[in-house]
């Protein structure tokens, strides 16, 4: 919405804000997770479905290609991010960021980091041939990857060098929307 200048009101919940299990929120999203979009009486959850909906509704000439192959090539990465990359990132988030140091399970942390590195190498190879994950221009797949890459690149861990991913990340940090929406406190 920020990328497309669509007016919206953001309500922070989850993490330190809590309230995910409030009956009022569970009625909107029974999964007790964020994000969740409300537009009039229409409720939508699943982050990448929300991205697709907003892009299709407001970004037809920019974020939502009408060419089916072009769009599918972007959606492939959105699904890949959600199905493959998100689970080990979430495991890492819970076992490292949200667990006090003296209670951390090193095996679990190593397991998730190994999987994340394997997957990000695939992204790094892809970005050696194209400017953005969505292709030659910024798009929906970059929006899907952005918060996960931000997290991995900004926690205190040892990381292998992934130069193409880092180049892509630098490009994103030049976007005011990325600064405002993604570069926030990790908790
Ligand atoms: N597949 C869901 C996953 C949603 C999800 O797991 N969200 C996390 C944050 S990324 C959450 O709400 N965690 C609870 C919390 O942060 O307190 C989506 O993409 O929307």
Automatic annotation (TrEMBL):
CDD domains attached to this UniProt entry: GST_C_2 (cd03180)
Domain GST C-terminal: 67-187
Pfam families given in the database record: GST_C (PF00043), GST_N (PF02798)
Superkingdom classification of source: Bacteria
Domain GST N-terminal: 1-62
Recorded family membership: Belongs to the GST superfamily.
Name of the protein described by the UniProt record: Glutathione binding-like protein
Organism expressing this protein natively: Xenorhabdus anantnagensis
Lineage, highest ranks first: Bacteria, Pseudomonadati, Pseudomonadota, Gammaproteobacteria, Enterobacterales
